[in-house]
Amino acid sequence: MVSTPVVEENIASARRLVAEAAATGARLVLLPEYWPIMGRSDSDKVGKAEQLGSGIIQQTMAELAREHGIWLLGGTLPLVSDDPAKVINTTLVYDPEGKPAGRYDKIHLFGFTKGDESYNESRTIVPGKHVGTVDTAVGKVGMAICYDLRFPELFRAMGPVNLIVVPAAFTYTTGKAHWEVLLRARAIENQCYVLAAAQGGMHVNGRRTWGHSMLIDPWGDVKAVLAEGEGVVHGALDTAYLDSVRESLPALRHRTM
After folding, report:
1. Taking a C-beta distance cutoff of 8 angstroms, is the pair 7, 142 a contact?
2. What is the pLDDT of residues 219-234, one digit of tens each?
3. Contacts of 26 (CB under 8 A, 6+ apart)
4. What CATH number is associated with residue 170?
5. What residue ranges are annotated as transmembrane (predicted)?
6. Domains: count for the chain
7. pTM of the complete model
8. Is 229 within a domain?
9. Which of 28, 29, 138, 210 is least enclosed by beta carbons within 10 angstroms?
10. How many CB atoms within 10 Å of residue 116?
């Protein structure tokens, strides 16, 4: 997606794209980080934060999961925190009946300064504290968000999973340098599939995100990719292939730490 500051516009885009994914036979769908709002300033999302269990964003995700009979991992949305000036950047999971099935709050908050480009998520986000996994139709799924990608210990703490999801809004600068290599590394070292749904393009606020949403297999091969713009990346998770990779190269069993 290339989300805007207008929640209703982004909901319309998400409805269209999720329907497109479901039409291909998808059983699990992942949305990008910040899919409901990419504000003109970082503080804009505070005003759109929802209480857990209510609000148009959560209502939309539940409806989409139920309407299409899919597991929906809702990228991230802003939830109300104890600090009125900050939100929790949260992935919520809905089962095919539209019922809440899991949650992960982003732990690592992005900070970056290079020339005129500067970001500091800690100004408007409260960090999460707990590793997030959920059992789905494609097996156990580990959840991470954007900047979490740089911290491999988080992924080890998930335990063996079939799939890791990484909704993201990587900047163009950092994404061009590190996005694909980090995603492939997480797939290789954890011997699982990695699905990364990203913001990708020029936003109304002047920010350019890297995009390159992709699906990567347990050997580290990129199976599908969309460089920029709205669209759907899709593919099949082959558990027999996953098992064969782990059997032929039993790195997970060889761990000593």
Report:
1. no
2. 999 999 999 999 999 9
3. 68, 70, 234
4. 3.60.110.10
5. none
6. 1
7. 0.96
8. yes
9. 138
10. 5
